[in-house]
């Protein structure tokens, strides 16, 4: 399906549900709400809000750090999202953009999220760039989010 058609369909869906297009809430670094719609970014996995990382033996809430990076990137803009489906939790699965920039790519390339290889190969090169350049979480000791959730 054409990405423009999906994008238009998404905004028709939002308008049909009487959602204010100015209402954006960042839940964590890979989940946002636009109006009443919870949107999970596809192809990436970000640390949980209560997840610790360590830099120079100093504890850092890496999930909070990643969320702050996303908040800063979004600013006062309303992301435009391309829907790819729904997950088992009824969240919309989508790739979202601000000023034409993929939020998922931004997060992974800057080391605030990881390519979620279990579901997608899309952001592997971005993750390799962040790892090689020790950006974001790659400059710290961390646990991958999917392993942290199993603890």
Molecular structure report:
31% of the residues lie in helices and 28% in strands. It is α+β, with helices and mostly antiparallel strands. It has one domain: OB fold (Dihydrolipoamide Acetyltransferase, E2P), CATH 2.40.50. Helix 3 runs parallel beside helix 4. It is globular and about 40 Å long.
Q: How many β-strands, per DSSP? A: 10
> How many separate helices?
5
Give helix and strand order, one letter per element, not per position: HEEEEEEHEEEHEHH
Q: Tell me about the biggest sheet? A: 6 strands, mixed
Percentage of β-strand residues: 25-35%
CATH architecture: Beta Barrel
Mean pLDDT: 88
In angstroms, what separates the terminal alpha carbons? 39 Å
Topology diagram in text:
Elements: H1 3-16, E1 24-28, E2 31-34, E3 37-41, E4 44-45, E5 52-55, E6 58-61, H2 62-74, E7 80-86, E8 92-98, E9 101-102, H3 103-109, E10 114-115, H4 124-132, H5 145-148
Parallel strand pairs: 3-8
Antiparallel strand pairs: 1-2, 2-3, 4-10, 5-6, 7-8, 8-9
List keywords for this structure.
6-stranded mixed β-sheet, 10 strands, alpha+beta, 151 residues, OB fold (Dihydrolipoamide Acetyltransferase, E2P), 5 helices, single chain, two-stranded antiparallel sheet
